[in-house]
Amino acid sequence: MARRLTNQEVAEIFERIADMLEIQGEEIPYKIMAYRRAAENIAALGRDIYDLWAEGALRTIPGVGEAIEEKIDELLRTGRLAYYERLKAQIPEGLLELRQIPDMGPKRIKTVWERLGITTVEELEAAARAGRLRDLPGFGAKLESKILAGIEAVKRRKIAGRVPLGVAWPLAQQILDALREVPGVQRLAVAGSFRRMKETVGDLDFLVAAEDPGAVMERFATLPVVEAVLLRGSTKTSVRLQNGLQADLRVIEGARWGTALQYFTGSQQHNIQLREHALRRGYSLSEYALTPVGTETEILCAAEEEVYARLGLAFIPPELREGRGEIEAALEGRLPRLVQLEDLQGDLQVHSTWSDGQASIREMARAAKARGYRYILITDHSQSLGVARGLTPERLQEQRREIEAINAELGDGFRVLHGAEVEIRADGSLDYPDEVLAGLDLVVASVHSGLRQDRERVTARFLAAIYHPYVHIIAHPTGRLLGEREGADADWEAILQAAAETGTLLEINANPARLDLPDSLARRALELGCRLVISTDAHSPGELAGMFFGVAVARRAWASPEAIANTWPLERLLAWAKEKPHRLRRR
Length: 587
Ligand code: DGT
Ligand code: CA
Ligand code: CA
Ligand code: ZN
What we know:
Blueprint: H1 7-24, H2 29-43, H3 49-54, H4 66-78, H5 82-90, H6 93-97, H7 106-116, H8 121-129, H9 141-160, E1 163-164, H10 165-180, E2 185-190, H11 192-195, E3 200-201, E4 203-210, H12 213-221, E5 226-232, E6 236-241, E7 246-252, H13 257-265, H14 268-280, E8 283-285, E9 290-292, H15 304-310, H16 326-331, E10 346-350, H17 361-370, E11 375-378, H18 393-410, E12 415-423, H19 434-438, E13 442-446, H20 455-466, E14 473-474, H21 492-502, E15 505-509, H22 519-527, E16 532-535, H23 547-556, H24 570-578, H25 580-586
Parallel strand pairs: 4-7, 10-11, 11-12, 12-13, 13-14, 14-15, 15-16
Antiparallel strand pairs: 1-3, 2-4, 5-6, 6-7, 8-9
The structure holds 2'-deoxyguanosine-5'-triphosphate, calcium ion (2 copies) and zinc ion.
């Protein structure tokens, strides 16, 4: 049996095929696009590609037609793809690496390869330093030095890699604050993947509307967090920040703000589809303007809403702009009303000093009430999690009395619920006996150890918890830590289906180091009819503020408020939980 590939690995192979075809000078651009589109959609799939394969449903992946379906089939069946191997034999590996360097498109890569035999970034760098690129057709001295600067930028970026959104966030806010003070600045935003609230960002794309670009760019280039200026043009500056992240700044006229913000927000896939849609409507769309085809008239859009409105579309929130059907949905008026922070009535995973939190229940409750919530669920750890000072059943009883006293103190309109974050043990059993669980308002269950068990065992553990009558929420399901630890390998399709069937709520953990469920799994969960909750997992009052990161994940999963159980009034939430044993019996 061939080794099981991850969705990411399959996507990567198709991405590389597209790159190699382009370098070879493939004449049919549509063919290249098809591979790219398939790669993106496989990477964003909420399900294991092997499941779709087994169901004979590969063609339901957008971009996968007959030819690509056959290739996926061969790859999953044999672990190899003859077509890919053939291409690899024709093209040196290192050539693909050259694609990351700005200005090195497939044509130029072909040129340096054919004329100078260059096949690696190092060889390209050496040739540029020796002044051997400038005489090639389509090059020149200016381009040669740009390529050198690009190589340095890429090398730095490689070290840093992609940065979690939660790390980029405070940095971006700090830069926005500084730029806002520059005289003449009319509007400013961070566009790109940051505005789409993607879980990691490759770089930061600042956009500013101002009359005089010079002053803004000067301020940007001299910020204390800037380590080096990589590029300085008349309206664009690129810098490397101290943490290795790259940041680009573009300055534009206020009258063109709408089209520019739309363009630089991306994603690239969304932009391509939007431009195709615009053409069908008789407009060409660029970052500068809308132009009726066949004319030279520019229609300027100062607001992004106007761009979508002129194209006959409902406004598409940035979180949805990934080329996953949002344009069709906007055209047909089928975009969901996405959940927003204000819809949330409570936080359902909150820790206190009873286990590993840093503040008392009273402090956490007051802080939550001040945020406008109607309820919180206190979920200290259960007994076996020694490192987090998990509670014995006796301590849990004492905690209940404290919570009752605090509720009496806080009065009507706010309620502290008594819960626990209960370990799902290695054999799938829970860390408290049933009679203890039955005494809690809501039970959150999670896995903290043994995430590396084999697929069958991990899956069985989750299923055991989901079919337990007193488990209401599964917390941070995959257990991943962004940039540090991959999530558990499990049969997520089966787990999501079981959660939908039993009405077990799945958590989107808003902690920016987790963001778990990830957006793609959350979207699949919603398709299967699951209800979700968004929780901060706060260990201090300040961490309650991180809720918006979780809301962003839910929005990227197309969640409406109705699908998120902590937008519900308390009575409805508790009634839903009480139903669980009956739902299990009715199965
Ligand atoms: P990242 O930085 O890798 O997290 O992802 P983005 O989406 O921020 O990508 P980035 O920084 O390369 O470019 C920002 C946006 O600008 C991108 O989402 C769409 C637009 N854009 C940039 N280059 C192109 C391009 O070559 N074609 C199209 N259609 N759009 C582009
Ligand atoms: Ca970016
Ligand atoms: Ca960028
Ligand atoms: Zn904890």
